[in-house]
Amino acid sequence: MSDQTSNAPHLARHSKAPTAEYWFYFGVILMAALPIAAIGTAIALLTCNREAVREGVLRKAWAQAQTATSLIFSA
């Protein structure tokens, strides 16, 4: 039997820099995510959920837009 662990192939993924198309979609999705994040923060304020409020509206919307745009471009 041969030893398969000594020369295991490296599965490095080279990530490309985001293109103009990516930033366009990111901007559109960010503009749609901002009101949703603001509503979520307002609800968190009303329910006294300090952890959700501490994150901030822009950071929450940015994360949602980044996730959605990445899903679109990975398909």
TrEMBL record:
Keyword Membrane part of the UniProt annotation: yes
Membrane-spanning parts: 22-46
Keyword Transmembrane attached: yes
InterPro entries with a match to the protein in the record: PufQ_cyt-su
Signal peptide as annotated in the record: none
Keywords: Bacteriochlorophyll biosynthesis, Chlorophyll biosynthesis, Membrane, Photosynthesis, Transmembrane, Transmembrane helix
Organism domain of life: Bacteria
GO biological process: bacteriochlorophyll biosynthetic process; photosynthesis
Family (UniProt): Belongs to the PufQ family.
Record function comment: Required for bacteriochlorophyll biosynthesis. Directly involved in the assembly of both the B875 and B800-850 pigment-protein complexes.
Protein name, entry field: PufQ cytochrome subunit
Species of the source: Thalassobacter stenotrophicus
